[in-house]
Amino acid sequence: MDPYKYRPSSAYNAPFMTTNAGAPVYNNESALTVGPRGPILLEDYHLVEKIANFTRERMPERIVHARGASAKGFFEVTHDVSNLTCADFLRAPGVQTPVIVRFSTVIHERGSPETIRDPRGFAVKFYTREGNFDIVGNNFPVFFIRDGIQFPDVIHAFKPNPKSHIQEYWRVLDFLSFHPESMLTFAWLFDDVGVPQDYRHMEGFGVHTFTLVNKAGKVTFVKFHWKPTCGVKSMLEEEAIRVGGTNHSHATQDLYESIASGNYPEWKLYIQTLDPADEDKFDFDILDTTQIWPEDLIPLHPVGRLVLNRNIDNFFAENEQLAMNPAHTVPGIHYSDDKMLQARLFAYSDTHRYRIGVNYLQLPVNAPKCAHHNNHYDGCMNFTHRDEEIDYFPSRYDTVRHAEKFPIPAKIIHGKRERCTIPKEDNFTQAGVRYRSWAPDRYKTGL
Ligand code: HEM
């Protein structure tokens, strides 16, 4: 950065130092004391405010995916999918939508090295004209478990031992040995892709089955895939140790410097689609997050491209306060009955209200870029000014009405209340196929 070019950002507009309340500060370097060597006076309001602000600079970090980096750009539709979905941002080739993307590791703390063996988060927020749509995915197409009620357990097993705060693989293996459905994800984690070279050279997957709905209400199951145009690259153990030993932020730095130098990272978006009538034709359950949809049976179709061409302006505002949420969908894209996804629909806004605060969606990075209106308001840190008298619905004095109805899946759901595993478990076939696909030397050594 050129210090002579730097000017304070838009949050401040005075050419001199002030307190938060705007009073001029004529000395920001010496505390107010009794004589040159005496004790500090409590009336040094500026000192107290400065230290009090400083000691509150951190918010709770994310319980998972605490370590991450974000960048901005756009998504452009390249192929017509309007027969599958009425989503406005997918309405025609050429349509562009602004996005912010956050990449992350999963298990360790905010300052942990980016070279560890861990899944990577790949979360994309589309600021569409119909509200925000978030694909909150990972760089693996599958997950260790298939029921959201087990998520706290799998994360606890991977997190450091609560006694020593050291990550220990006996805990991981202990837990996973009770969950044979984790085998395929385990094979991804211990494959080379378990340590991506950086964030630019990795794939992304929505993981869950989602539902597309077109204008006529026709429903199609879908999986989302991001493919990097610069290819997938990973690090072997020794390289990871060397890179992580010299720079614990190498992936954040790579992303930032690539964009700053005009080498914009790009991914192509592909979808796999499935007619619900064919749902039962496979040996596995198509809602099971521990299984892929094999591409030879259900091929990939191109949809669009994602280009990251702008760095964030402030890490705290656009990375730490960023709130990704798989429950954020738009008309034309719906959830599925996948038990992991259903649990996630609750988890994210719940954690955001705790981690960031009830009005987290008012923050610029999280707020929709389209017009929006409802009667949820006030609360801590509300900074909207509502100059209106009607705060209920309906009202003859308020012109705001229901939005136009859009189609949602119409399937009739029935069954008895029960806690159980899905009937069609196939825990090993796909894991075996992946293991045998590895090059023979690796197959022999198991590396
Ligand atoms: C982040 C919960 C499964 C991908 C988070 C966070 C929570 C959470 C609480 C922190 C969010 C924040 O503080 O902003 C859960 C639960 C799950 C689940 C309860 C299972 C029921 C998954 C799965 C994936 C995933 C299967 C991958 C498909 C992510 C990503 C982030 C995240 C990418 C980071 C988002 C960001 O960059 O801000 N998850 N998660 N999670 N989760 Fe999950």
TrEMBL record:
Could you tell me which Pfam families the record lists for this protein? Catalase
SMART domains the UniProt entry points to = Catalase
Give the UniProt keywords, A-Z. Hydrogen peroxide, Oxidoreductase, Peroxidase
Q: So what EC number does this one have?
A: 1.11.1.6
Q: What class of enzyme is it?
A: oxidoreductase
Q: Which organism is it from?
A: Cannabis sativa
Q: Which PROSITE patterns match?
A: CATALASE_1, CATALASE_2, CATALASE_3
Q: Does the keyword Oxidoreductase apply?
A: yes
What name goes with this protein?
catalase
Quaternary assembly: Homotetramer.
Question: Where would I find the Catalase core domain in this sequence?
Answer: 18-401
The record's listing under InterPro entries reads: Catalase, Catalase_AS, Catalase_clade1/3, Catalase_core, Catalase_haem_BS, Catalase_sf
Per the record, the domain of life is Eukaryota
Family affiliation? Belongs to the catalase family.
Keyword set includes Oxidoreductase? yes
Physiological role: Catalyzes the degradation of hydrogen peroxide (H(2)O(2)) generated by peroxisomal oxidases to water and oxygen, thereby protecting cells from the toxic effects of hydrogen peroxide.
